[in-house]
Amino acid sequence: MDKIRRMKRIFREDGKTLVVAMDHGTFNGASAGLENPGKTIEQIVAGGADAALVNFGVARRFAAELSGIGYIARLDLPPTYLGVGHDSRIAFDAEYALRMGADAVMINVGQGQGVEEPTYPHLSHAIQQCDEMGMPVCAEAVPGGFDSGKELKTLDHIARGARIACEIGCDFMKIGFAPGFERVVQETFVPLIVLGGAKTDDVREFFASIREAMDAGASGVAIGRNIWGAGNTVGMTRALAAIVHENAGAEEAYEILQSVK
Q1: What is d(CA 172, CA 252) in angstroms, rounded to the nearest whole number?
Q2: 110-148 tens-digit pLDDT
Q3: Strands, E, within the chain: which ranges?
Q4: Which of 79, 90, 219, 229 has the most crowded Cβ, counting Cβ within 10 A?
């Protein structure tokens, strides 16, 4: 299978995708809503998710539940909740991901002292491996790393970091959002998936932010806690799928959420 066919396992014919991020367990243990990964996968499939980002242990144990959607595998591991620092380390290789049936792999990268030195070589090495196997590579590009403050998560830093990852050779990207995101779209040449960020209690505002990202040119979103941590996994997935694929607005998405019990 080549990259084009694998990418089509993640992105629909409209070129867009709803990815559910479920990779939190390697640094935080069992988060609320992810106690039973198999059940959560069944719920996001029922809601219309296109792909899931899961760790290898989950992919192995719940292969049947995962078989109906795209599977993105993370090659790196972050420090645990008791660890020091924020740098991810490569723990798996692309060949293993291929054997596990992954449709794409993901690696964290970020510009900044102490962050880019390990992560950009990780990305370039994975790209070389994956090109030989027809495996797409997704760069999760976060300026300054995940522990960085708001001063580094500006439009300018996001745009520059995105272009750097494109130049290195990633096939698509998971990335933060900032007002003026159209600039990031214009200055890159791969699909951009906007990450969901921290858990929010204002669902309407959250839906509006996703609508804003899609209107700015995002090719989709990668949402975790705001789907499986919201208490209505099927409903949140269905509502977000409507925003991504059916051009639904925030209020329409909220009505969809309320209709699913």
Answers
A1: 29
A2: 887 777 778 899 999 999 999 999 999 999 998 866 666
A3: 17-21, 51-54, 70-74, 76-77, 89-90, 104-109, 137-141, 172-175, 192-195, 220-223
A4: 219
Beta bridge partners of 222: 19, 195
Residue that wins the pLDDT comparison between 84 and 261: 261
String of b and e for 32-54 (b: at least 16 CB within 10 Å)?
Answer: ebbeebeebbbbbbebbbbbbbb
Question: What is the C-alpha separation between 84 and 40, in angstroms, rounded?
Answer: 30
**20 CB-near residues (< 8 Å, 6+ apart):** 44, 49, 51, 52, 53, 222, 223, 224, 227, 228, 237
pTM (predicted TM-score): 0.94
Tokens of 192: 């951009």
Helix (H) or strand (E) holding 239: helix 233-246
**Spatial distance between the Cα atoms of 210 and 182, rounded to a whole number of angstroms:** 14
Q: Name the token pair of 213.
A: 């990202």
- Residue ranges of domains in the chain, CATH in brackets: 3-259 (3.20.20.70)
